[in-house]
Amino acid sequence: QVQLVESGGGSVQAGGSLRLSCIATRNTRKGMCLGWFRQVPGKGREGLAVIHPEFGSTMYDASVKGRFTISQGDAENTTNLDINTLLPDDSAMYYCAAQVPCRFFHPSDPARWTYWGQGTQVTVSS
């Protein structure tokens, strides 16, 4: 079983930037992919980006519009999500997720993702 812990959220001003981080309790990147999702009350989880750490491949949802960047963290079992030019609509609970093994390399369809973190709250003020 994989445990995931997100960090980096908080209250920020519109136009600023944030780096969200996720660490997985798995000692290897082999056979695992990591992704970022977000959710606001009353709506389903929205897929943002996916990374395959073993191969360095990334995939973004079209809604990102160039403001989000997913990357490998310092350790092979970590990932970062950089958000630039924050907007009030970016306010949400941000979740890190993992697939083991990685069978669906796309941020859509949260049901495909096996493990989830508790989330980190991002609140953007105007």
Q: Uncertain spans, ≥5 residues at pLDDT below 50?
A: none
Main β-sheet, in a few words?
Answer: 7 strands, mixed
Radius of gyration: 13 Å
Helix and strand content put the structural class at mainly beta
- Nearest-integer average pLDDT: 93
Helix and strand element order: EEEEEEEEEEE
Verbal overview:
The protein has 126 residues and is mostly beta strands. The protein contains no helices and 11 strands. The protein has strands at residues 4-7, 10-13, 18-24, 33-39, 46-52, 57-60, 68-72, 78-83, 92-99, 115-116, 120-125. Strands 2, 4, 5, 6, 9, 10 and 11 form a 7-stranded mixed sheet that branches. Strands 1-3-8-7 form a 4-stranded antiparallel sheet, with no helix packed on it. It is globular and about 40 Å long. The chain starts with a strand and ends with a strand. The mean pLDDT is 93.
Brief overview:
With 126 residues, the protein is mainly β. The chain is built from no helices and eleven strands. Strands 2, 4, 5, 6, 9, 10 and 11 form a seven-stranded mixed sheet that branches.
Characteristic key phrases:
126 residues, mainly beta, 7-stranded mixed β-sheet, 4-stranded antiparallel β-sheet
Topology (SSEs and partners):
Blueprint lengths: L3 E4 L2 E4 L4 E7 L8 E7 L6 E7 L4 E4 L7 E5 L5 E6 L8 E8 L15 E2 L3 E6 L1
Parallel strand pairs: 2-11
Antiparallel strand pairs: 1-3, 3-8, 4-5, 4-9, 5-6, 7-8, 9-10, 9-11
